[in-house]
Known about the structure:
The protein has 13 helices and 8 strands. The chain is mainly alpha-helical. The chain folds into 3 domains: 2-57; 65-159; 185-353, Intergrase catalytic core (hpI Integrase, Chain A), CATH 1.10.443.10. The chain has a 3-stranded antiparallel β-sheet with strand order 1-2-3, covered by helices on one side.
Amino acid sequence: MATIQKRTNPAGETSFHVRVRMRGQPTQTSTFQRLTDARVWASSIESAIRENRHFKTSSSKKHTLADLIDRYLGQLKERSPKRYQDVKAQLRWWREQLGYCVLSDLTKSMIAEKRDYLLSNSQFPNGNGKPTQRKRGPATVNRYMGSLHHAFSVAVNEWEWLEQHPMRKLGKLREPRGRVRYLSDDERTRFLEICRQSNSTNLYTIVVMALSTGARRSEIMYLRWRDIDFARHMITLHETKNGERRALPLTGLAYQLIRQRCDDLTPDKNAFVFEGEVSGEPANIQSSWNTAVALARLDDFRFHDLRHSAASYLAMNGASLAEIAEVLGHKTLSMVKRYAHLSEAHTSQVVQRMNQKIFG
Length: 360
């Protein structure tokens, strides 16, 4: 006997959940957007069971997307806390939108529809539970898709909750050419002075480190004292975006500030270099950062632009694209080609030397 239950998700969208029960046979369930489709499916299942056809049952019929996301986030929080912080807001958004859906009923078109909604809707969570009004770009939507894609990969390969990846043929949105926003000499001087005068005891040193090393914000904030080798003037980054360890030189002003900080604090080697008010948590500099950017009158400037600034300074001081990629931790040159125009003088010198050697 088939029963059809009407359901409404938090977004107000209606679906119809079908349950077919027949004595001696496993219960079959599915969800549809239209009542007509639900009735047709229920009728076909009942006919197939009466004809003794075999229906394979799997975990995909027992679990919803909400179950998958909850388990994935639980594992991630234990195994990779930094990654957990990066993706939790994105995956919770997917849970709100499609968490009600049984995995066996989740289709590529349903995910694509939500992807398009992501791109067109201007409100989305910013990590503290409050929606922002800033419109998402293709790069942000791709990160949302990437977070869900990896959760599905784990469910397919490790848990065997799904036989096939539901996002296998869903391509990425085309992203615009990467921006190159870096601090001019005047902007840099003004901004560093304001950061130095900030009420935050962390902001100035963090900004200097970002400009000096090109490290990402998360790499700096999750840096521990045990990762710094003062004798060799080197930092070892264990948790990076591409998953590979990376060594960074610690020189000049950045070295002096970190050395002085270590001497003043005499910290535990396992503590964060920039410890937050809550023990065991990295510092939160967002408020101090926003204030400093406003006081320095920096237009369209984000923390990640400190990394762009470091790469741009390297290019303008003769570093090759391969050298910039090595410092930034990129596996390919495609990500650093945006700085190529800044190293034209260096490129001209290379071509000139080649021509002199060949033609005299």
